[in-house]
Amino acid sequence: MSEHPTSDALPEYAERVLDVAELIPPGRVMTYGDIAEWLGEGGPRQVGRVLALYGAAVPWWRVVRADGALLPGHELRALDHYREENTPLREASRSAEGHVPRLDMRRARWDGGAGAGGVGAAGDGGGAHT
Predict the structure, then answer these.
(1) SS3 for 51-101, per residue?
(2) What pLDDT is stored for residue 96 in this prediction?
(3) 56 in helix, strand or coil?
């Protein structure tokens, strides 16, 4: 059972998105699109909206943009979590604003684990497994 607010207070799709976010192990990430593919419903924007509205109680920093850029406005909070969890990062280029690193998506991306039925770990977004 989920540890989110009751289903009366939380839309079913939102509950499903948050449940997937909670499955992502420390030090690993999934993209917004990965979660939509995992669920077989919605898209990256819908997943992002759910996390913006309801994601404070889940490890929101583990759900990321496909390009590995940190969530604007939350970079430092997310970076603290990534460093604590040893999430693979890439050094920021000299031209990067504030020299904030990016996630190393090739190494950090989680595919749902063996037999979990998630998405591929390929850098192109993978594909849904059924």
Answers:
(1) HHHHHHHCCHHHEECCCCCCCCCCHHHHHHHHHHHCCCEECCCCCCHHHCC
(2) 61
(3) helix
